[in-house]
Amino acid sequence: MQLATLRAFLVVLAEHSVTAASTRLHLSQSTLTRQIAALEHEIGTPLLERHARGVAPTPAGQALADAITGPLGSIESAILLARQFGRGDRTELRIGYLQSLARSYLNPALAALRQVHPGVKVRLINLCAAGQMRALRANEIDVALIGHEGRLLSREFYARRVQCVPVIAALPVGHPLAARATLRLADLRRELFIGKDDGESPGHNEWIAQMCRRAGFRPRFVQHAGSISEVLSLAVSENAVALLPEFAAEPAAPSIATVPVVDAGAHWDLLVLWQRGRAAAPVKAFVNALNAMPQRPILTARVA
């Protein structure tokens, strides 16, 4: 492998463009493209992702660049590291997630990931829905484990629905409806609702409103909260109801009762989003692990 080829690769990364790099290196674009293709062939994995705005390194490409420019790097060790990243044997997977998803969804998916990619270093970043959306756009996370809010980014990132989660109504234990085995949304038409801050969970209140409109009424929001724990506390203090995915109240606070909502169409979508381009093997494995989880049954009321 020629040092000039590695230098050309680093210039492409610095310029974020093959065209700009070829000008800087005084090479034709076709010559530089062939050099990069030969480098990728020799290492055995793609090093660059092509986007409308230019090029960016794959995980293997970034590992190669970091190893070459590191203080103790050698060409041989840099190539070996890039090959390991390309196979998924060594890489870092940055996962953004909602805290309430950890027990039921995140932890089982991580266990499955460990079985197929034991060398992957996982970095977990607990973020609200809006925080995950910002982090994806800033390329600060590789994967987002998020709710229906993720549909807002479906044009920018790959998105897949991995679970259709039942909905519960969270009410104070002394509420007249708290002892019910199940509830219909129409049973809540006279109740006050606790929503969530749009800055934290964009689209959450509209999700509630859509379900209620299908049941023939508009919800009356009395307060909005930033977190699930705050939602539940406000439900108690306001003697109000909160509609949430069932995992959000597991385990429920002692002063809160949770009742399944059995309307057809009353569900919460769990989405996984990841960066566009060539997905690293651990990303694919993590997405597949989520997708392989058994769907939770959604109760529905029988129509007489």
Automatic annotation (TrEMBL):
Family the entry assigns: Belongs to the LysR transcriptional regulatory family.
- For this entry, the protein name equals Transcriptional regulator, LysR family
GO-annotated molecular function: DNA binding; DNA-binding transcription factor activity
Q: Name one GO cellular component term.
A: protein-DNA complex
Q: Which UniProt keywords apply?
A: DNA-binding, Transcription, Transcription regulation
Q: Which CDD domains match?
A: PBP2_LTTR_aromatics_like
Q: Which domain of life is it from?
A: Bacteria
Q: Per the UniProt entry, what species is this protein from, by scientific name?
A: Opitutus terrae (strain DSM 11246 / JCM 15787 / PB90-1)
Q: Where is the HTH lysR-type domain?
A: 1-58
Q: Does the keyword Cell membrane apply?
A: no
User: What Gene3D superfamilies does the database record attribute to this sequence?
Assistant: Periplasmic binding protein-like II, Winged helix-like DNA-binding domain superfamily/Winged helix DNA-binding domain
Asked if the keyword Transcription belongs to this entry, the reply reads: yes
What InterPro entries does UniProt report for this protein, alphabetically?
LysR_HTH_N, LysR_subst-bd, WH-like_DNA-bd_sf, WH_DNA-bd_sf
